[in-house]
Write a structure and sequence with these properties.
35% helix; Rossmann fold; 10 helices; single chain; 296 residues; globular; tRNA (5-carboxymethoxyuridine(34)-5-O)-methyltransferase activity; seven-stranded mixed beta sheet; EC 2.1.1.-; binds S-adenosylmethionine; tRNA processing
Length: 296
């Protein structure tokens, strides 16, 4: 494994307007992966990824790989993994976790943001994962274009994105009515907030994919029930029941549409789309000021 060496930044946002997770690693690890939300996410991915992807031990590029759980999962499945991550703090934790869990596996840690990958890891890749990253970027559409450019023809992109429509729904459920009416849903990426700055809609993903020559092969909702519960499951039995419900309905209409995250398999078409067929317009999101924290 290689070690990260990027210098600490004084602004929480990168030159691209992205929220790298330096300063957020502890909070992210505790608030997401330290609880039921993280457990559900990983348990659902463990079941969904083998169904949604054609996995044949291909080399994987994990973009914005964070704490390394997904990289570890793919390594366990026999894939050589390159984990790219711009946050030195996240990479350090990923390195520690992966060394412990997957000592014998082939995992390269690359201290780089998505925008640098066409130079630093051009591929082309037949398998890329980018989970829960686009919503932290200033220009998620440009990022999806970069990912499309890194894919080999016929290559698969496992994309997971924070669902803006689910964010609205959970705000209403929590009683944040004026915030929902004003459509002030996004975070600003400042301080130690974990509300994403660019939550995305299914309509945006569909439109951008069409424009970029990516075919949407599969879609699922991650946590279609959990984030709307009035009280979290208290017992192991209830947690198990909830997982079974999440699993049963994560690909069933209309439930998947309100998953906290939307998980896609996008496949790069063999031939690029012509400009004439790429004129799908996409909805824009309004800028907001943050009042309530909406955790991942
Ligand atoms: C919510 S975490 C997701 C981490 C991991 N993919 C997962 O699913 O647990 C978002 C990650 O995106 C990273 N990130 C932010 N801007 C990025 C960029 N421009 N390129 C790549 N990763 C970026 C952050 O540093 C952080 O580790």
């Amino acid at each position: 494994m290689t070690l990260p060496s990027s210098p600490p930044s004084s602004s929480p946002l990168s030159v691209h307007g992205d929220r790298h997770f330096d300063g957020l690693a502890d909070k992210f690890a505790a608030s997401l992966y330290g609880g039921v939300r993280g457990e559900l996410r990983l348990a659902l991915l463990d079941r969904l990824l083998p169904e949604m992807l054609d996995l044949r031990g291909q080399a994987l590029l994990d973009v914005g790989g964070g704490l390394g759980q997904l990289a570890g999962w793919f390594a366990e499945w026999g894939h050589p993994v390159t984990l790219a991550e711009p946050s030195a703090e996240m990479l350090k934790r990923a390195r520690e976790a992966l060394l412990e869990a997957s000592a014998e596996r082939e995992i390269i840690l690359l201290p780089a943001p998505l925008q640098a990958l066409p130079e630093q890891a051009p591929g082309p890749w037949s398998l890329i994962a980018c989970h829960a990253v686009l919503e932290w970027l200033g220009d998620p559409r440009a990022a999806l274009a970069t990912l499309a450019g890194l894919l080999a023809p016929g290559g698969q992109l496992s994309l997971m994105a924070f669902n803006r429509d689910a964010l609205r729904f959970s705000n209403v459920v929590k009683g944040n009515l004026q915030k929902a009416l004003d459509d002030r849903l996004e975070g600003k990426g400042l301080r130690r907030r974990l509300t994403p700055i660019s939550p995305l809609t299914h309509a945006q993903i569909m439109a951008w994919s069409a424009e970029l020559g990516l075919e949407v092969r599969e879609v699922a909702g991650i946590r279609v029930f959990h984030d709307y519960l009035r009280s979290p499951p208290q017992t192991d039995d209830d947690r198990e029941r909830l997982l079974e419900l999440e699993w049963r309905y994560c690909r069933v209409d209309p439930h998947w549409r309100l998953g906290r995250y939307l998980l896609y398999t996008l496949v790069r078409r063999d031939t690029p789309v012509s400009p004439a067929s790429s004129s799908v317009s996409s909805p824009t999101s309004s800028s907001t000021s943050l009042q309530d924290q909406e955790p991942l």
